[in-house]
Design a protein that fits this description.
The structure is a homodimer of 232-residue chains.
Chain A: H1 6-17, E1 21-23, E2 28-30, E3 40-44, E4 47-52, E5 58-64, E6 69-70, E7 83-86, E8 90-94, H2 96-103, H3 109-135, H4 138-155, E9 163-165, H5 170-177, H6 181-193, E10 197-200, E11 203-206, H7 209-216, H8 224-230
Antiparallel strand pairs in A: 1-8, 2-7, 3-6, 3-8, 4-5, 4-7, 9-11, 10-11
Helix pairs in contact in A: 3-4, 4-7, 5-6
Chain B binds a DNA duplex (30 and 30 nucleotides) through residues 137-138, 169-171, 179-183, 185-186, 188-189, 201.
Chain lengths: 232, 232
DNA sequence: CGTTATCTTGAGCAGTGTCAAACTCAGTGG
DNA sequence: CCACTGAGTTTGACACTGCTCAAGATAACG
């Protein structure tokens, strides 16, 4: 995400070498209103943050991909308002030094800048979610969301050729998009008929990205220029 | 929001004494994708942050009340992804020292803690907005949102007796709740018929808060204990 | 006091949700 | 190796929430 000085790389290498914790699908990584013990990073697998109403209606706020952080915040005693649930087998590493580093930005400017970028994107995606749920139709939501996942996967070097694993059931997708399973299914069918996507065996291929971008009015968080700027 | 040391009060008094900038209703305080020049605080009036789709559908992300911050962030060059629009006549003060202070938390622990609290609440309300739009019915959304505004107004000593000015047209409320004007109107009528609210001359009275809390499943961001903790 | 925004109401319709059943398919156990 | 199982997907029929269009009623404002 950003160029780093040697001592910064050292910190990351340290974290990388640390033992990982492992969770199975549907395990709860973090509970609503529990205290967060220090940032963690997902090294593999997918998770999501969600909350549910008393009657069982559930809403996913955000999907967490490998490389994403859990509980990343400069605040002193961050508290989670959501549940973090594993969508697949997930491995995470603790990275307490990251919280410290962020506060002490002068010492690790590269890491601080990268964290800034992550926080900025998170805010952006959160707003995108509001936009989708508040004003877009089922078809638009799905198109927009697919492009967002594609963007994020590509940004970490996954998702070669606009095709990547999508380890979510239609039920789960429905929870993310604020729709019913049945309607998700119908919308998927439509996109398939139109030749815009292919989704089988848990793998999604975006066959007509321009059409999807247009349908969902997707805009990446950073204009191309700023991106080039941020990762020289 | 938090107890402060004397030198911290000094900073706030300095900011408070500074000349305010003034905007009229519908003025744009900040544009999408423009750089933020440093945090500002709203000293009077209401504003909102919103974005719109090409075809004119618009979604309000958040309503900004007096005392709320604009562009508050520890990130180095924060960038807004939304438009900030005045809903009424609005006055704001610049507070560049706040950004500095947040980074240098050891020097102003009280201010830092207060900012943490603000940021935490903002995150919480953003998630509440997602929950509303994704999973709640029109009636639930409105009940929940009314309670949220009430909570926020009360937290700043406005909103005596659960009655406060609501300087928004039904059109604007619709933009905030992801509904159409007509449906907002009908839902308001229903709440009035049921004796749960009164809304006239731009003033909202919550006549039956327990019912509204229950209908919207509203939960305040901080449990009572933590609040007492934060403002002794 | 006119003019224009805002609110209100009705009628009809579209997009999604619900319910229910059939189908697929990967895994499991015999 | 194959029937069985259960989660996940697909389809149909139907209901309902919320939207659109349109017109009339009120209230705000110069």
């Amino acid at each position: 995400l950003h160029e780093l000085a040697d001592h910064e790389r050292g910190v990351l290498r340290l974290i990388e070498g640390r033992p990982k914790r492992s969770y199975g699908a549907d395990d709860r990584l973090l509970s609503e209103r529990s205290e967060i013990h220090g940032p963690h990073f997902i090294t593999s697998g997918w998770a999501c943050s969600m909350r549910e109403l008393k009657d069982g209606r559930r809403q996913i706020f955000n999907v967490l991909l490998p490389g994403d952080a859990i509980g990343l915040s400069i605040r002193s005693k961050p508290r989670s308002f959501t549940n973090i649930i594993a969508l697949t087998t997930v491995r995470i590493v603790d990275a307490p030094e990251i919280a410290v580093a962020w506060r002490d930005r002068a010492r690790v400017p590269g890491i601080a800048a990268a964290l800034d970028l992550m926080a900025t994107e998170e805010e952006f995606f959160s707003q995108a979610q509001i936009m989708r749920l508040g004003r877009q139709t089922a078809y638009e939501r799905m198109a927009h969301w697919f492009m967002e996942i594609d963007y994020r996967m590509a940004a970490r070097g996954l998702g070669a050729g606009s095709s990547f694993p999508l380890p979510m059931t239609q039920e789960t997708i429905a929870s993310a998009l604020g729709l019913s399973v049945v309607h998700v299914n119908r919308t998927l069918q439509q996109m398939r008929r139109e030749g815009r996507i292919e989704l089988k065996h848990g793998r999604l291929s975006l066959l007509d990205k321009p059409a999807l971008v247009a349908a969902g009015e997707f805009t990446p968080p950073m204009p191309a220029a700023a991106m080039a700027d941020a990762r020289p």
